[in-house]
Amino acid sequence: MDKASRIHIAGHGGMVGSAIIRSLRARGFDHLLLRTRKELDLRDAVAVREFYARENPDVVIVAAARVGGIHANSTYPAEFIHENLAIAHNTIHEGWRHRVKRLLFLGSSCIYPREAPQPMTEECLLTSPLEKTNEAYAIAKITGLKLCQFYRQQYGVLFHSAMPTNLYGPGDNYHPENSHVLPALIRRFHEAVQNNTPTVTLWGTGIARREFLHADDLAEGLLTVLGLENPPDWINIGYGRDVSIKEVAELIAKITGFQGELLWDSSKPDGTLRKLMDSSKLLATGWKPKYDLETGLRHAYEDFKMLQSAGTLRQI
């Protein structure tokens, strides 16, 4: 991928897409093809076909997806499978039709089996049943990985995938019900402090463990993967260590200044009890994350407060 490459970042307005843009521009890549959701609906095959034909991208990074936490995945499974299948099919198939030189599709650690051995290697995909609370999303994302793998196998195109762990950082989605665990906790504890609320009730038992990676570290990892001449069909990108939800809740309480009591609603699901990825293949290239969890969360919290004050907090 050279500096003259015309690069389309699908989903550039989201947390991950924004981080990719920052990393690309810092490296001197200026030919970025960016379209908002209103300008280009990736669920619309005709719209995607016309965009590829008109703009002729050399490289496509598919960071667009319908995403959310346990509540959103459990409440809207039809939307999650339909929209993510459409995005995967349209971007990958039209990329092949229009001779895109390289396409990188983003999967997710949550598409690995519920009972996968820890830490999870790339080889454990599809070896046992998925976690039921996000099965619809997982099936759609697995389809995207397999599309890239089989188009590469049959047509020789350099289409491949990356598997990020749980992400957080600037520009995250802070919807009160549909967001992922870290932004949901940041918002909940911040509002508890503002409202002098004495307790905060959280879903599950707090024993589930999660691995978290800052979006800027992910972006650097993705550019490292794009620099590999012969990458694997999919490669893990994780932090390398995990923490319990209880531990991360206590950390966010400290960062936001919440001094009340944490309550746990064990009638709500924990989700998969552990999701730690084996990122040894990527670490072997020399990439490694820069943000430890507390530093990264403080960074994210400052961004949250800035966006909230400006009235531009992302809530979808």
Can I get a quick summary?
The protein has a single domain, classed as NAD(P)-binding Rossmann-like Domain (Rossmann fold, 3-Layer(aba) Sandwich), CATH 3.40.50.720. It contains ten helices and 13 strands. The protein has helices at 15-26, 45-55, 70-75, 77-97, 135-155, 181-194, 215-226, 245-256, 280-283, 293-310, and strands at residues 7-10, 32-33, 59-62, 102-106, 158-164, 166-168, 199-203, 209-210, 212-214, 234-237, 243-244, 261-265, 274-275.
Describe what this molecule looks like in 3D.
The longest helix is centred in the first third of the chain and has 21 residues, at 77-97. Helix 6 (181-194) packs parallel to helix 8. The mean pLDDT is 94. The protein has a six-stranded parallel β-sheet with strand order 2-1-3-4-5-10, sandwiched between helices. A three-stranded mixed β-sheet has the order 11-8-13. Strand 4, helix 5 (135-155) and strand 5 (158-164) form a beta-alpha-beta unit. The protein has one domain (7-310): 3-Layer(aba) Sandwich (Rossmann fold), CATH 3.40.50.720. The protein has helices at 15-26, 45-55, 70-75, 77-97, 135-155, 181-194, 215-226, 245-256, 280-283, 293-310, and strands at 7-10, 32-33, 59-62, 102-106, 158-164, 166-168, 199-203, 209-210, 212-214, 234-237, 243-244, 261-265, 274-275. With 316 residues, the chain is α/β, with parallel strands linked by helices. It contains ten helices and 13 strands.
